[in-house]
TrEMBL record:
Occurrences of domain Acetyl-coenzyme A synthetase N-terminal (ranges): 3-57
Domain AMP-binding enzyme C-terminal span(s) in chain numbering: 509-588
Highest taxon listed in the record's lineage: Bacteria
CDD domains the record matches: PrpE (cd05967)
Phylogenetic classification of the source organism: Bacteria, Pseudomonadati, Pseudomonadota, Gammaproteobacteria, Cellvibrionales
Pfam families: ACAS_N, AMP-binding, AMP-binding_C
Protein name: Acetyl-CoA synthetase
One Gene Ontology MF term: propionate-CoA ligase activity
Length: 623
């Protein structure tokens, strides 16, 4: 069937479309009801279905006689470790880990925070939570202690699973002291921390709270899968919003499993026995969906790569991994390919490798700029697919439906809406924009399975953040347009979220941290264009009168402050001290104008500006 037919059916008959998708999975109790509102009035998929996501992802394949097939290849150029896990081995390790967590008091609905580097134990811990019906919340390793503390306080976990260290290129990052600091800062105290001791650095364990992963596992008995309702949460994943408090995106079990399984074929054209490599991190949604859940649910082999596209050891790393594991499709952020191009412009490091297994390159996390698109396409001679989605949706909103009917791509476009997503471009009054006209990108409700169910512990925030702008629509926070043929072009966020090397960050949160410095009177943080990382944050600060320190020393303190409070991943390294910030007469800082000046774009002086001379001051500093 052609894309247009499939897509039309998914919107016209959503219940029958998604029931059909759901029927491909091994439920304990197949749902009778397909879509019905929950107590908050929010439409939920398969509310009376019963399943276990871990069962579907592991045990089912073993039961089908595919236990020997490889589920996961772990490849770590930073340690030299390589290990392959069959579905059966992974199932056994997960069952044991689930038994260990159960012994520590973790049961259905309990939360477990996972703060780990890219090691197999992170995947095992996630699936072990799913096995128990517990809710995991993975926190990306590049976040600072206070970010981890905020997530511990919000998710209130019984157990935290962590590791002694992560390895960033040639730097060993001690995780345990960060975890200890976070627990010191948090009001909520987990009962236990289970720590994977890595040979590169042993962590100091504080008994009886801290346990050694290997010792605790040695005492455990395997645990069986616990049936849960489709609407029971599988995980909470925190993402940047407009304030300093991250939003806990809640993903359910049933809709998620259906969407993940469906997307592996529809979006990526991957099926049992194929090898899929999402070069991301389990701390991000890409890692949740496409390193862990979707490939395993679909019986696809996944690659867990603890390394970078460059410097581990060189810009040939991606090509080496593709050849080594016979990868059929890779998914990475455009910034990774820009890094490879920068380090190896002539692509000489590609020469030793045979990439015959590779069929498609997928990119997301930030806009795929046409230059990177053409470079990768010409280099590999393969389809390069940009696809657009977000933590909230869990899978592609727009993409090229490779498993239904590949359509001709257009550089700069995320292509067409995926089944179930009624994507609209709305003007300020909520009316559909004409083709070519930019507006807010919104999705008409209901959202398809797999999208967020709520914000953890704060449904009102969910409604305010996503549902209150346009009645009957989910607001994505992105701006863009559709062309005459319905191709969707995503042009950037309409709020203060920025994308740094494919990592989603909040400039509002950075502003809160910068403004907390005693010398700062006011500040603005904007995302400015960067050739490698897409965007980088730039801070402009006005100092209080009488500050007795050089601009350089204040700037250095602010850089350190953001690194300490938000994390190195923010890449907050540029700070300029200015006399004043351009503002409207009502006192609103003109951040868009600042960004345009920094990016050397044409701009129009807003008629509402309070003091036009402020522009000259900014231009001088940013020249
Ligand atoms: N734990 C601890 N620290 C981490 C970390 C982690 N998991 N991940 C990143 N950091 C730190 C880095 O060490 C670096 O610190 P530094 O300022 O001391 O050098 C900082 O955070 C920024 O890291 P990163 O963005 O990775 O920058 P880089 O310069 O080391 O590498 C790229 C540049 C382009 C190679 C890298 O950003 C990259 O691979 N990007 C792809 C991102 C991606 O896959 N995103 C997922 C969305 S699909
Ligand atoms: P995250 O929640 O971290 O996945 O970030 C989601 C945001 O990243 C989106 O709202 C977009 O702003 C941006 N983004 C992700 N993929 C793309 C893409 N293919 N094109 C343009 N922007 C993208």
């Amino acid at each position: 069937m052609k894309y247009q037919d499939v897509y039309a059916r998914s919107l016209q008959q959503p219940e029958s479309y998604w029931r059909e998708q759901a029927s491909q999975l091994p439920w304990y109790r197949f749902p009778v009801t397909t879509l019905a509102p929950d107590d908050n009035g929010w439409p939920r998929w398969f509310p009376d279905g019963e399943l276990n996501t871990c069962y579907m992802a592991l045990d089912h394949h073993v039961a089908q006689g595919n236990g020997d097939q490889i589920a996961l290849h772990y490849d770590s150029p930073v340690t030299g470790a390589r290990q392959s896990f069959s579905f059966e081995t992974l199932r056994d390790q997960v069952a044991l880990c689930a038994g260990m967590l159960r012994d520590l008091g973790v049961g259905k609905g309990d939360r477990v925070v996972i703060y780990m580097p890219m090691i197999p134990e992170a995947v095992v811990a996630m699936l072990a939570c799913a096995r128990l019906g517990a809710i995991h919340s993975v926190v990306f390793g590049g976040f600072a202690a206070s970010e981890l503390a905020a997530r511990i306080d919000d998710a209130t976990p019984i157990v935290v699973v962590s590791a002694s260290c992560g390895i960033e290129v040639d730097q060993v990052i001690a995780y345990k002291p960060l975890l200890d600091q976070a627990i010191d800062q948090a009001w909520h105290q987990p009962a236990h921390c289970v720590i994977v001791q890595r040979p590169q650095l042993q962590a100091k364990l504080m008994g009886p709270r801290d346990l050694d992963w290997h010792q605790a596992l040695a005492r455990a008995q395997p645990a069986d899968c616990v049936p849960v309702l489709a609407t029971d949460p599988l995980y909470i994943l925190y993402t940047s919003g407009t304030t300093g408090k991250p939003k806990g995106v809640v993903r359910d079990n049933g809709g998620h499993a259906v969407a993940m399984h469906h997307s592996m074929r529809c979006v990526y054209n991957m099926g049992p026995g194929d090898v899929f490599w999402a070069a991301s991190d389990v701390g991000w949604v890409v890692g949740h969906s496409y390193i862990v859940y979707a490939p395993l649910l679909a019986g696809v082999t996944s690659v867990l790569y603890e390394g970078k596209p460059v410097r581990t050891p060189d810009a040939g790393a991606f090509w080496r991994v593709i050849e080594q594991y016979q990868v059929n499709a890779i998914f990475a952020a455009p910034t990774a390919f820009r890094a490879i191009r920068k380090a190896d412009p002539e692509s000489t490091l590609l020469n030793p490798y045979n990439l015959a297994s590779l069929k498609t390159v997928f990119m997301a996390g930030e806009r795929l700029d046409p230059a990177t698109y053409h470079w990768v396409k010409n280099l590999l001679g393969l389809p390069v697919v940009d696809h657009w989605w977000q933590t909230e949706t869990g899978w592609a909103i727009c993409g090229n439906p490779m498993g239904i009917e590949p359509v001709p791509p257009k550089a700069g476009s995320a292509t067409l809406p995926m089944p179930g997503y009624d994507v609209r471009i709305l003007d300020a009054n909520g009316k559909d924009c004409a083709a070519g006209e930019q507006g807010s990108v919104a999705i008409k409700l209901p959202l398809p399975p797999g999208c967020l169910a709520t914000v953890w512990g704060d449904h009102a925030r969910f409604v305010n953040s996503y549902l209150s702008v346009f009645d009957g629509y989910y607001t994505t926070g992105d701006g863009g347009y559709k062309d005459e043929q319905g191709y969707v072009f995503i042009m950037g966020r309409t709020d203060d979220v920025i994308n740094v090397a494919g990592h989603r960050l909040s400039t509002g949160e950075m502003e809160e941290i910068v403004a907390g410095h005693k010398a700062v009177a006011e500040c603005a943080v904007v995302g400015v264009a960067d050739d490698l990382k897409g965007q980088l944050p730039l801070g402009l600060v006005v100092l209080k009168d009488g500050v007795d320190a050089s601009d350089e020393s204040i700037a250095a303190e602010l850089v350190q402050r953001v690194r300490d409070k938000l994390g190195a991943v923010a890449c907050f390294k540029q700070v300029k001290v200015v006399d004043r910030l351009p503002k409207t007469r009502s006192g609103k800082i003109l951040r868009r104008l600042i960004r345009q000046i920094a990016d050397k774009e044409q701009y129009q002086t807003p008629s509402t500006i309070d003091d036009p001379a402020a522009i000259g001051a900014i231009e001088k500093v940013l020249a």
